[in-house]
Protein backbone atom coordinates (compact mmCIF):
# COMPACT_ATOMS: atom_id res chain seq x y z
CA UNK A 1 0.00 0.00 0.00
CA UNK A 2 1.24 3.45 -0.92
CA UNK A 3 2.31 6.07 1.56
CA UNK A 4 0.77 9.49 1.09
CA UNK A 5 2.94 12.45 2.06
CA UNK A 6 1.56 15.99 2.11
CA UNK A 7 4.05 18.83 1.77
CA UNK A 8 2.47 21.76 3.53
CA UNK A 9 3.09 25.20 4.98
CA UNK A 10 0.65 28.06 4.57
CA UNK A 11 3.59 30.38 3.98
CA UNK A 12 4.61 30.62 0.33
CA UNK A 13 8.15 30.47 -0.99
CA UNK A 14 9.47 28.06 1.61
CA UNK A 15 10.39 25.25 -0.79
CA UNK A 16 7.24 23.09 -0.78
CA UNK A 17 7.06 22.64 -4.53
CA UNK A 18 10.80 22.14 -4.92
CA UNK A 19 10.73 19.52 -2.17
CA UNK A 20 7.81 17.66 -3.78
CA UNK A 21 9.54 17.53 -7.15
CA UNK A 22 12.97 16.49 -5.89
CA UNK A 23 11.81 14.08 -3.21
CA UNK A 24 9.48 12.49 -5.73
CA UNK A 25 12.08 12.09 -8.42
CA UNK A 26 14.67 10.81 -5.97
CA UNK A 27 12.23 8.19 -4.65
CA UNK A 28 11.68 7.13 -8.26
CA UNK A 29 15.45 6.86 -8.74
CA UNK A 30 15.44 4.49 -5.77
CA UNK A 31 13.04 2.28 -7.69
CA UNK A 32 9.80 3.44 -6.08
CA UNK A 33 6.61 4.04 -8.02
CA UNK A 34 5.70 7.67 -7.37
CA UNK A 35 2.77 9.95 -8.12
CA UNK A 36 2.94 13.69 -7.54
CA UNK A 37 -0.32 15.57 -7.11
CA UNK A 38 -0.38 19.33 -7.62
CA UNK A 39 -2.98 20.71 -5.21
CA UNK A 40 -2.02 24.35 -5.73
CA UNK A 41 -4.06 26.48 -8.14
CA UNK A 42 -0.83 28.23 -9.19
CA UNK A 43 0.30 24.98 -10.78
CA UNK A 44 3.96 25.50 -9.86
CA UNK A 45 4.65 21.80 -9.43
CA UNK A 46 3.07 21.13 -12.82
CA UNK A 47 5.24 23.86 -14.36
CA UNK A 48 8.38 22.52 -12.70
CA UNK A 49 7.62 19.09 -14.18
CA UNK A 50 7.78 20.55 -17.69
CA UNK A 51 4.21 21.73 -18.38
CA UNK A 52 4.68 25.51 -18.63
CA UNK A 53 0.98 26.25 -19.23
CA UNK A 54 -0.98 24.25 -16.67
CA UNK A 55 -4.16 26.27 -17.27
CA UNK A 56 -4.36 24.86 -20.79
CA UNK A 57 -4.30 21.22 -19.75
CA UNK A 58 -7.56 19.49 -20.49
CA UNK A 59 -7.65 17.27 -17.44
CA UNK A 60 -6.27 18.28 -14.06
CA UNK A 61 -6.87 17.62 -10.40
CA UNK A 62 -9.85 19.99 -10.49
CA UNK A 63 -11.48 17.96 -13.29
CA UNK A 64 -11.02 14.76 -11.31
CA UNK A 65 -12.32 16.22 -8.05
CA UNK A 66 -15.28 17.66 -9.95
CA UNK A 67 -16.08 14.14 -11.10
CA UNK A 68 -15.86 12.83 -7.54
CA UNK A 69 -18.32 15.50 -6.44
CA UNK A 70 -20.71 14.65 -9.27
CA UNK A 71 -20.21 10.94 -8.60
CA UNK A 72 -19.04 10.31 -12.16
CA UNK A 73 -16.84 7.38 -13.05
CA UNK A 74 -13.08 8.03 -13.03
CA UNK A 75 -10.56 5.95 -14.97
CA UNK A 76 -7.56 5.15 -12.76
CA UNK A 77 -5.09 6.70 -15.21
CA UNK A 78 -7.26 9.67 -16.11
CA UNK A 79 -5.39 12.98 -16.19
CA UNK A 80 -2.10 11.45 -15.08
CA UNK A 81 0.97 12.60 -17.01
CA UNK A 82 4.33 10.87 -17.17
CA UNK A 83 7.56 12.72 -16.54
CA UNK A 84 10.71 11.54 -18.28
CA UNK A 85 12.49 11.17 -14.96
CA UNK A 86 10.26 8.27 -14.06
CA UNK A 87 7.37 9.69 -12.10
CA UNK A 88 3.69 10.35 -12.70
CA UNK A 89 2.02 13.67 -12.04
CA UNK A 90 -1.59 14.71 -11.73
CA UNK A 91 -1.38 18.39 -12.69
CA UNK A 92 -3.05 21.29 -10.93
CA UNK A 93 -4.16 24.66 -12.28
CA UNK A 94 -6.34 27.71 -11.80
CA UNK A 95 -9.50 25.60 -11.98
CA UNK A 96 -8.76 24.50 -8.44
CA UNK A 97 -9.79 27.98 -7.26
CA UNK A 98 -13.25 27.56 -8.74
CA UNK A 99 -13.50 24.08 -7.35
CA UNK A 100 -12.58 25.34 -3.90
CA UNK A 101 -15.52 27.75 -3.99
CA UNK A 102 -17.94 25.06 -5.12
CA UNK A 103 -16.84 22.75 -2.29
CA UNK A 104 -18.78 24.91 0.18
CA UNK A 105 -22.03 23.17 -0.67
CA UNK A 106 -20.67 19.66 -1.00
CA UNK A 107 -21.34 16.90 1.50
CA UNK A 108 -18.15 15.59 3.19
CA UNK A 109 -16.28 18.39 1.49
CA UNK A 110 -13.06 17.63 3.40
CA UNK A 111 -12.92 14.06 2.04
CA UNK A 112 -13.25 14.58 -1.72
CA UNK A 113 -9.57 14.10 -2.49
CA UNK A 114 -9.47 11.07 -0.20
CA UNK A 115 -12.17 9.40 -2.29
CA UNK A 116 -10.06 9.89 -5.41
CA UNK A 117 -6.78 8.85 -3.81
CA UNK A 118 -8.30 5.62 -2.50
CA UNK A 119 -8.93 4.64 -6.14
CA UNK A 120 -5.29 4.91 -7.21
CA UNK A 121 -3.37 4.40 -3.97
CA UNK A 122 -2.52 0.77 -4.58
CA UNK A 123 -0.69 1.57 -7.81
CA UNK A 124 2.01 3.64 -6.11
CA UNK A 125 4.62 3.28 -3.38
CA UNK A 126 4.46 7.01 -2.67
CA UNK A 127 1.97 9.74 -3.44
CA UNK A 128 3.37 13.19 -2.70
CA UNK A 129 0.97 16.11 -2.63
CA UNK A 130 1.99 19.74 -3.03
CA UNK A 131 -0.26 22.07 -1.02
CA UNK A 132 -1.17 25.66 -1.77
CA UNK A 133 0.09 28.33 0.60
CA UNK A 134 -3.07 28.49 2.71
CA UNK A 135 -5.05 26.35 5.10
CA UNK A 136 -7.96 26.22 2.68
CA UNK A 137 -10.57 23.49 2.28
CA UNK A 138 -8.38 21.99 -0.41
CA UNK A 139 -5.40 21.83 1.97
CA UNK A 140 -7.66 20.23 4.59
CA UNK A 141 -8.60 17.69 1.89
CA UNK A 142 -4.91 16.92 1.43
CA UNK A 143 -4.36 16.52 5.18
CA UNK A 144 -7.44 14.33 5.42
CA UNK A 145 -5.99 11.75 3.08
CA UNK A 146 -2.29 11.95 4.01
CA UNK A 147 -0.36 9.46 6.11
CA UNK A 148 2.17 12.13 6.98
CA UNK A 149 3.01 15.80 6.50
CA UNK A 150 6.39 17.24 5.68
CA UNK A 151 6.76 20.89 6.65
CA UNK A 152 9.42 22.90 4.81
CA UNK A 153 10.52 26.02 6.68
CA UNK A 154 12.72 28.64 5.13
CA UNK A 155 15.91 29.33 7.06
CA UNK A 156 15.81 33.07 6.47
CA UNK A 157 13.30 33.84 9.20
CA UNK A 158 11.16 31.98 11.57
CA UNK A 159 7.40 32.39 11.32
CA UNK A 160 6.73 30.55 14.58
CA UNK A 161 3.18 31.82 14.71
CA UNK A 162 2.43 30.41 11.29
CA UNK A 163 3.96 27.10 12.22
CA UNK A 164 1.86 26.92 15.38
CA UNK A 165 -1.27 27.50 13.36
CA UNK A 166 -0.29 24.76 10.90
CA UNK A 167 0.46 22.27 13.67
CA UNK A 168 -2.85 23.11 15.38
CA UNK A 169 -4.66 22.52 12.10
CA UNK A 170 -2.91 19.19 11.65
CA UNK A 171 -3.91 18.05 15.15
CA UNK A 172 -7.49 19.16 14.52
CA UNK A 173 -7.52 17.10 11.32
CA UNK A 174 -6.08 14.20 13.30
CA UNK A 175 -8.85 14.43 15.90
CA UNK A 176 -11.77 14.91 13.57
CA UNK A 177 -10.95 13.63 10.10
CA UNK A 178 -7.82 11.50 9.85
CA UNK A 179 -6.56 9.79 13.04
CA UNK A 180 -3.59 8.17 11.27
CA UNK A 181 -1.88 11.39 10.17
CA UNK A 182 1.64 12.00 11.53
CA UNK A 183 4.14 14.79 11.06
CA UNK A 184 6.98 13.38 8.96
CA UNK A 185 9.18 16.25 10.08
CA UNK A 186 10.17 19.87 9.72
CA UNK A 187 12.61 20.44 6.88
CA UNK A 188 14.78 23.54 6.91
CA UNK A 189 15.29 24.80 3.38
CA UNK A 190 17.29 27.43 1.48
CA UNK A 191 20.09 27.49 3.99
CA UNK A 192 22.72 30.08 3.23
CA UNK A 193 26.02 28.60 4.32
CA UNK A 194 27.50 32.04 4.95
CA UNK A 195 25.19 32.76 7.87
CA UNK A 196 24.33 31.09 11.14
CA UNK A 197 20.57 31.40 10.63
CA UNK A 198 20.06 27.71 10.06
CA UNK A 199 21.78 26.80 13.30
CA UNK A 200 19.83 29.41 15.29
CA UNK A 201 16.57 28.40 13.70
CA UNK A 202 17.19 24.70 14.29
CA UNK A 203 17.88 25.46 17.96
CA UNK A 204 14.72 27.56 18.25
CA UNK A 205 12.62 24.92 16.50
CA UNK A 206 14.03 22.20 18.72
CA UNK A 207 13.21 24.21 21.83
CA UNK A 208 9.70 24.94 20.61
CA UNK A 209 8.72 21.61 19.06
CA UNK A 210 11.63 19.16 19.27
CA UNK A 211 10.05 16.98 21.92
CA UNK A 212 7.08 16.12 19.77
CA UNK A 213 8.11 16.73 16.20
CA UNK A 214 11.06 15.48 14.22
CA UNK A 215 13.29 18.17 12.81
CA UNK A 216 15.39 16.80 9.97
CA UNK A 217 19.13 17.04 10.71
CA UNK A 218 19.69 17.37 7.01
CA UNK A 219 19.11 20.91 5.71
CA UNK A 220 18.51 21.91 2.10
CA UNK A 221 21.16 24.44 1.08
CA UNK A 222 20.41 27.58 -0.89
CA UNK A 223 21.58 27.31 -4.48
CA UNK A 224 20.74 29.12 -7.66
CA UNK A 225 20.88 25.67 -9.31
CA UNK A 226 17.69 24.67 -7.52
CA UNK A 227 15.93 27.69 -8.91
CA UNK A 228 17.22 27.07 -12.43
CA UNK A 229 16.10 23.43 -12.36
CA UNK A 230 12.49 24.29 -11.53
CA UNK A 231 12.24 26.79 -14.37
CA UNK A 232 13.58 24.21 -16.80
CA UNK A 233 11.09 21.47 -16.01
CA UNK A 234 13.62 19.06 -14.59
CA UNK A 235 14.81 17.92 -11.20
CA UNK A 236 18.03 18.95 -9.51
CA UNK A 237 19.26 15.40 -10.23
CA UNK A 238 19.29 16.19 -13.95
CA UNK A 239 20.30 19.82 -13.72
CA UNK A 240 23.11 19.59 -11.18
CA UNK A 241 23.47 15.96 -10.09
CA UNK A 242 26.71 16.44 -8.18
CA UNK A 243 25.66 19.65 -6.43
CA UNK A 244 24.88 20.17 -2.76
CA UNK A 245 21.11 20.49 -3.25
CA UNK A 246 20.93 17.14 -5.07
CA UNK A 247 22.95 15.60 -2.27
CA UNK A 248 20.65 17.06 0.40
CA UNK A 249 17.51 15.78 -1.32
CA UNK A 250 19.16 12.37 -1.71
CA UNK A 251 19.81 12.27 2.05
CA UNK A 252 16.24 13.40 2.76
CA UNK A 253 14.91 10.65 0.52
CA UNK A 254 16.98 8.04 2.35
CA UNK A 255 15.60 9.35 5.65
CA UNK A 256 12.04 9.11 4.35
CA UNK A 257 12.59 5.54 3.14
CA UNK A 258 14.46 4.70 6.36
CA UNK A 259 11.73 6.01 8.65
CA UNK A 260 9.36 3.69 6.87
CA UNK A 261 11.53 0.64 7.57
CA UNK A 262 11.92 1.75 11.16
CA UNK A 263 8.16 2.12 11.59
CA UNK A 264 7.53 -1.32 10.13
CA UNK A 265 9.62 -2.98 12.86
CA UNK A 266 7.00 -1.99 15.42
P1 LIG B 1 6.75 27.08 -2.22
O1 LIG B 1 6.20 25.95 -3.01
O2 LIG B 1 6.76 26.83 -0.75
O3 LIG B 1 6.09 28.38 -2.56
P2 LIG B 1 9.06 26.84 -3.96
O4 LIG B 1 9.54 25.45 -3.90
O5 LIG B 1 8.26 27.25 -5.13
O6 LIG B 1 8.30 27.23 -2.62
O7 LIG B 1 10.34 27.78 -3.84
C1 LIG B 1 10.24 29.20 -3.89
C2 LIG B 1 11.34 29.74 -4.80
O8 LIG B 1 12.60 29.43 -4.23
C3 LIG B 1 11.33 29.13 -6.18
O9 LIG B 1 11.68 30.11 -7.10
C4 LIG B 1 12.38 28.04 -6.12
O10 LIG B 1 12.97 27.80 -7.37
C5 LIG B 1 13.37 28.64 -5.13
N1 LIG B 1 14.07 27.61 -4.37
C6 LIG B 1 13.57 26.48 -3.81
N2 LIG B 1 14.51 25.78 -3.16
C7 LIG B 1 15.65 26.47 -3.31
C8 LIG B 1 17.01 26.27 -2.87
N3 LIG B 1 17.37 25.21 -2.16
N4 LIG B 1 17.92 27.21 -3.21
C9 LIG B 1 17.57 28.30 -3.94
N5 LIG B 1 16.34 28.54 -4.39
C10 LIG B 1 15.37 27.65 -4.08
MG1 LIG C 1 4.50 25.93 -4.25
Alpha-beta content class: alpha/beta
Order of helices and strands: EHEHHEEHHEHEHEHHHH
- Integer tally of domains: 1
Number of helices: 11
Gist?
The protein has 266 residues and is an alpha/beta fold. The chain contains 11 helices and 7 strands.
Description:
With about 270 residues, this protein is an alpha/beta fold. The protein has a single domain, classed as P-loop containing nucleotide triphosphate hydrolases (Rossmann fold, 3-Layer(aba) Sandwich). The chain has 11 helices and 7 strands. The protein has helices spanning about 15-30, 45-50, 60-70, 95-100, 110-120, 135-145, 160-175, 195-210, 225-230, 235-240, 245-265, and strands at about 5, 35-40, 80, 90, 125-130, 150-155, 180-190. Helix 3 packs across helix 5 (about 110-120) and helix 5 (about 110-120) runs parallel beside helix 6 (about 135-145). The chain is globular and about 55 Å long. The model has no long low-confidence stretch (mean pLDDT about 95).
Question: Notable features of this structure?
Answer:
7-stranded mixed beta sheet; alpha/beta; binds magnesium ion; 7 strands; 266 residues
Could you outline the blueprint of secondary structure elements for this entry?
Elements: E1 3-7, H1 16-29, E2 34-39, H2 44-48, H3 61-69, E3 81-82, E4 88-90, H4 95-102, H5 112-120, E5 126-131, H6 137-145, E6 148-154, H7 160-176, E7 182-189, H8 197-209, H9 224-231, H10 236-239, H11 244-264
Parallel strand pairs: 1-5, 1-6, 2-4, 2-5, 6-7
Antiparallel strand pairs: 3-4
The chain binds adenosine-5'-diphosphate and magnesium ion.
Amino acid sequence: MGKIIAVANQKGGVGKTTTCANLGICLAKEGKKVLLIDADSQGSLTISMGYPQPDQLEVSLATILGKVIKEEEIMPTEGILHHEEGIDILPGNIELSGLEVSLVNVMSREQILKQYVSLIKDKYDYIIIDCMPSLSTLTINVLSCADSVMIPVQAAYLPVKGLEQLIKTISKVKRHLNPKIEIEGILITMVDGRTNYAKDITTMLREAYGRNIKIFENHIPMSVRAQEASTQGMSIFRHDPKGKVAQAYQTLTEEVIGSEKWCKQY
